[in-house]
Write a structure and sequence with these properties.
By secondary structure, the chain is of the alpha/beta class. The chain is built from 16 helices and 20 strands. It is about 35% helix and about 20% strand.
């Protein structure tokens, strides 16, 4: 276990992950410098605890031994580049937690372009149903730095590509890449670097859990000592899959039934795949089939993920604000028939033509908002010219109310008004949760009228 006593550590970022790292370092008697672009309630609390806030210095402070960077800090940030050039270790919060972990507590790790949080929460529910002390941590919202000192039996760990990029020594007991599609290209600089980061979840696994229906999941696991596949089709020997309405495990002979597809409380084929991935990870750890079924039945989805808000005038209003890229939005749209689609935001450099062409047959109408709405409008004009499209140009607090009102005017009984933006939220909202809450509030106002 790494000792930080007396060492000077620069913590880059004072949000959730960075603040957790700083608190752990202070408890371990390190000298802690906190860098962030502005003072905040978080930086004030850390200063009271003994850290020193340095803002965004133009040069690396003297005496720094290690830099721990939050996921929001891109690797080309001048402070991180300067530290690396000076031969100073630059690690992320996940690497920091891995170095401090109890080696007797294995990690079951989940990454992928989409479905990570749903899968890791399903996994947590299954592990708890098996009577294990566990928690879902990482990108799901609970920093790993806060949990590695707690006496758990096993951890369900969600990892985004920025976290994996800066965790070179990570070796989970088992890991999975759920799927891969272009995303975070602006952060990594290229799709190749993005996929290389995802591949780190497979390093050193006792078993790599592979989505047999996703080319990249299979490709990135090449060379793994053991693979366990999952598929939405009938599973080949050594894999999990779907047969006659049940989740079947054929990793041993004879195979076993794990759960009914109807046990999964969230709609869509993508969520069946998420359940299979969670089940496969749990089975690698040794969980019995009954716990898989019980865990899936008791699973509670996180907010803003294919959540039915209300049905008004025969129209269902569904909040999937977490669909922050085209791949996620396509999966969301596949769960419904005729959709009035609410989309737009920051596309993060991702092309949308193929995506729009693939979902056009489900669209009754489209309401666009956000910074990159014009790119979506142009793709819709090329690939779905007969679909009515309306744009909301305002960006104030009432914008989402207008979006919901326009969608209601375009929807007919039996339709679904679906917020699945295919884009990030930061142009208009603090995060996808704030965007989802604004949508929910708009639907509630509509229902009240």
């Amino acid at each position: 276990m790494t000792s930080y006593q007396g060492r000077t550590v620069l913590v880059a970022g004072a949000a959730v992950a960075g603040a957790a790292v700083a608190r752990v370092l202070l408890a371990r008697q390190a000298v802690v410098l906190v860098a962030d672009q502005r003072e905040s309630e978080s930086t004030a609390e850390l200063e009271l605890a003994g850290a020193r806030f340095v803002g965004l210095p133009s040069a690396l402070p003297l005496g720094v031994d290690t830099v721990v960077a939050s996921p929001g800090w891109r690797p080309d940030h001048p402070l991180l580049v300067a530290a690396a050039a000076a031969g100073i270790d630059v690690i992320g919060e996940v690497e920091f937690a891995w170095q401090l972990r109890d080696p007797a507590v294995p990690w079951l790790a989940v990454t992928g372009t989409n479905g990570k949080t749903t899968t890791v929460l399903m996994l947590e529910s299954i592990l708890r149903a098996a009577g294990l002390r566990t928690v879902a941590a990482g990108n799901v919202g609970l920093p790993l730095a806060e949990v590695v000192g707690t006496p758990y039996d096993v951890l369900a760990v969600e990892l985004g590509s920025p976290q994996l990029h800066s965790a070179p020594s990570l070796r989970p007991l088992a890991g999975t890449v759920l799927n891969v599609a272009p995303d975070h290209i602006d952060w990594h600089g290229s799709f190749e670097r993005y996929t290389a980061a995802k591949a780190r979840v497979y390093a050193g696994n006792a078993a790599a859990v592979v989505n047999l229906d996703d080319e990249w999941s299979v490709r990135l696991a090449a060379g793994s000592a053991r693979t366990v596949g999952f598929t939405l089709s009938a599973p080949p020997q050594g894999s999990l899959g779907v047969m006659d309405g049940v989740l079947a495990d054929r990793t041993a002979d004879p195979g076993v039934v794990l759960a009914n597809v109807s046990d999964i409380p969230v709609p869509g084929p993508h969520n069946v795949a998420n359940a299979l991935a969670a089940a496969a990870l749990a089975r690698v750890y040794g969980v019995d089939p009954a716990a898989v079924s019980a865990g899936l039945r008791s699973f509670t989805p996180a907010p803003h993920r294919n959540a039915l808000v209300s049905t008004v005038g025969g129209v269902a209003y569904v909040d999937d604000s977490k669909a922050t890229n085209p791949h996620a939005a396509a999966a969301s749209l596949s769960a419904y028939g005729r959709v009035v689609w609410i989309a737009g935001g920051l596309l993060k450099g991702v092309a949308v033509d193929d995506f729009v062409a693939s979902i056009r047959d489900r669209l009754a109408a489209v309401v666009l908002l956000g910074a990159d709405r014009q790119l979506l409008a142009e793709a819709l004009a090329r690939h779905a010219p007969d679909v009515p499209v309306t744009e909301v140009t305002r960006t104030d607090n009432g914008a989402m109310d207008e979006v919901v009102a326009r969608a209601a005017g375009l929807a007919a009984p039996g339709d679904t008004v679906l917020l699945a933006p295919a884009a990030a939220s930061w142009d208009m909202f603090s995060d996808y949760s704030a965007r989802g809450r604004a949508f929910v509030a708009g639907v509630q106002k509509l229902a009240a009228r």
